[in-house]
Amino acid sequence: MDYISTRGLSPGAGFSDAVMTGMGQDGGLLLPASIPEVGDRLNAWQNLSYVDLASDLMSLYTDIPSADLRRLVDESCATFRDPEVTPVKRVGDVWILELFHGPTLAFKDVALQFLGRLFEHLLKERGELLNIVAATSGDTGSAAIHGVRGRPGMRIFVMHPQGRVSALQERQMTSVLDSNVFNVAVRGTFDDCQRILKTLLGDPAYRKQHSLGAVNSINWARVLAQMVYYFYSGLRVMKQTGAKTVSFAVPTGNFGDILSGYFAARMGLPVSRLVLATNENDILDRFLTTGIYSLGQVSATLSPSMDIQVASNFERYLYYLVRRDSGLLRSLMDAFERRGSMELPGGYGEPGGGIFVSGSARRDETLRTIKRFMEQHDYLLDPHTAVGVAVGERHVGAEPMICLATAHPAKFPDAIREAVGRDLAHHPILDGLSGLPTRCDTLPADANAVREYVAARTECP
Question: 88-105+221-427: which CATH architecture?
Answer without folding.
Answer: 3-Layer(aba) Sandwich (3.40)
